[in-house]
Amino acid sequence: MGKLFLLEDVTVFEPIGRVGESAQDTGEVMETKELRVMLVEDDPEDVAFTKIILRKAGLDRNLLVALDGKEAIEDLVRLKENGSTIPDLILLDINLPDISGIDLLTKLKRDHKLSRIPVVMLTGSNVDDDIQKSYDLGASTYLVKPISKDALMLVIENLFG
């Protein structure tokens, strides 16, 4: 089962996070929109770095982290079956143990309810085949790590207005 993080401590997947542009790097959030985010990432350093970027973007309050593709599927199925709110956005690494990010993206896009969730491929791979395959399978966008707060905010603004 995925872990729910509030950078400093663990919380439940019920509070709604806020997204917005920071006026400065103080973390002050201006314009906001409610979002639930799932990060699917197996590398602890990349998880920690991405959480910092999400905090700077105001998206860390409602974050579900799955450490591999199998865990992500289990968490999403559990949320669906329990009638819980599914994520509004999935940040997905390509190179995962068990189930690759590409295979997970395929499964997500075949599921009626989950197929509507925008998926941002967040990966160290800038191989043309990975990029093309991700878009062909329905990824909303593709960001090569390391990402910046500005790049992530631009993607979110384009996806959620």
Describe this entry's structure for a reader.
The chain has five helices and nine strands; from the N terminus they run E-E-E-E-E-H-E-H-E-H-E-H-E-H. With 161 residues, it is α/β, with parallel strands linked by helices. It has a single domain, classed as 3-Layer(aba) Sandwich (Rossmann fold). The chain has a seven-stranded mixed sheet, with helices on both faces. Strands 3-4 form a two-stranded antiparallel ribbon. Strand 1 and strand 2 (9-10) form a beta hairpin. Helix 2 runs parallel beside helix 3. The relative contact order is 0.16. Mean pLDDT is 81; it is low at 1-32.
CATH architecture: 3-Layer(aba) Sandwich
How far is the first residue's CA from the last residue's CA?
31 Å
The Rg value, from CA coordinates, equals 15 Å
β-strand number: 9
Short descriptors:
9 strands; seven-stranded mixed beta sheet; 161 residues; 20% strand; single chain; disordered N terminus; alpha/beta; Rossmann fold
In short:
The protein has helices at 44-56, 69-81, 101-110, 128-136, 149-160; strands at 3-6, 9-10, 17-19, 33-35, 37-40, 63-66, 89-92, 119-123, 141-144.
Secondary-structure topology with pairs:
Layout lengths: L2 E4 L2 E2 L6 E3 L13 E3 L1 E4 L3 H13 L6 E4 L2 H13 L7 E4 L8 H10 L8 E5 L4 H9 L4 E4 L4 H12 L1
Parallel strand pairs: 5-6, 5-7, 7-8, 8-9
Antiparallel strand pairs: 1-2, 1-6, 3-4
